[in-house]
Amino acid sequence: MSKVELKGVYMNYHTLTGETSALSNINLSVETGEFLSIVGPSGCGKSTLLNIIAGLLKPSQGSVMVDREKITGYSPKLGYMFQRDHLFEWLNVMENISLGLKIQHKLNEENKLKIDSLIKKYNLWDFRSHMPSELSGGMRQRTALIRTLSLDPEVLLLDEPFSALDFQTRLKVSDEIYKIIKNEGKTAIMVTHDISEAISTSNRIIVLSKRPANIKKILEVNFGPEHNSPLKRREAPEFRLYFNSIWEELDLNDD
Ligand code: ADP
Ligand code: MG
Fold this sequence. Notes:
Number of helices: 8
CATH superfamily of the largest domain: P-loop containing nucleotide triphosphate hydrolases
Helix content: 25-40%
Structural class: alpha/beta
Bound molecules: adenosine-5'-diphosphate, magnesium ion
């Protein structure tokens, strides 16, 4: 079933110096349980697209539907994870994770237990009283993800979630985060400029053109059951074929 649907989405930014056209006629349907990546050159409109799906920005034209209902602002069905983890440095891990529920006045016994179990399951229990500055980059991202998951969204929106990490850490963390998302049965829409990251995590990849972004290509990604995680996928022989086919489509040249 289609979980998220975009119909004829356009976005123009109006500034003092003029108009910037960021998105042009985006039509897209995301299935329940899917891990969809959106790749495109830097500045093409990826974050704009994700912000529109999140209901943080209103499109100039077109609509976004979640479960066939039009999105017009914040929806509890959607959870957002940004490029920077946005942890509050003066709150410890537990306090950071609980904050969303606290703000929504939903930090009841049941939800506290749910948070405890997520923290234990994803190996942060021993660090629950640590401050963010005492954590590795990977632990910070895991904390940010659990904070998002504590609100129990059905769809996770991820904007270049690993790009602030160094390469080695990024491989490990994307593997961990992928497994958590799958384990929790969430639908995911991830924006990235990293082709390998998209291939290693996704079952479908949308390739965007240069700004104003439109959809150049939609690619289905299939790996055998022995390549069932991002790290293992990177070792599959067909990985490079997918890479080349996206590379050819990606418009990375300056004019
Ligand atoms: P990406 O995430 O692919 O790098 P963005 O969606 O952030 O791209 O930006 C797409 C284009 O829209 C860029 O040219 C950017 O400068 C412009 N843009 C983004 N946000 C705004 C804004 N709030 N006001 C005006 N222009 C913006
Ligand atoms: Mg961006």
